[in-house]
Amino acid sequence: MGINVTGINHVIVAVEDLEAGIETFGETWGLELDHRSEVPEMGIKAAYFNVGDAILELVTPYDDSESNLLRKQLDRRGEGLYMFCVRVDDMAAAIADLRAKGCTVTDPIVTDEVQEAFVSPRNAHGVRMQLLQRLK
Fold this sequence. Notes:
The chain is an alpha+beta fold. The protein has a single domain (5-134), classed as 2,3-Dihydroxybiphenyl 1,2-Dioxygenase, domain 1 (Roll). It is 22% helix and 42% strand. It contains 3 helices and 8 strands. It has helices at residues 18-28, 69-77, 91-100; strands spanning 5-14, 33-39, 44-51, 54-61, 80-88, 109-110, 114-119, 128-134. The protein has an 8-stranded mixed β-sheet with strand order 2-3-4-1-5-8-7-6. Strand 3 and strand 4 form a beta hairpin. The longest helix is centred in the N-terminal third of the chain and has 11 residues, at 18-28. The model has no long low-confidence stretch (mean pLDDT 93).
């Protein structure tokens, strides 16, 4: 069956200053902040904007340890696109298709609501790609 991308789920932009990012995308671009969150296990704070049927997520590290992947990316590449997440209708088929094409893809992580897998940035011109299949 192969990969069947059914839409953009979310785009994540890494920012040094979450408040400045919220101001930019709120005031300059006219997007309305939907909510904020913290992800302690990743050491990040996030802000979410609904954009049509997709989400723009701004993330910033609050844990500046050497193990924080977001901090590493900001130090290496600066602010900008961090991850691009697409919805697929069949995770197993998408992973098999991408692997058959030589892509490095993680095994899926499954929760009650979604399955997600991650594709190496080497397989998407330096962009971290996430595959997401809604289960409910």
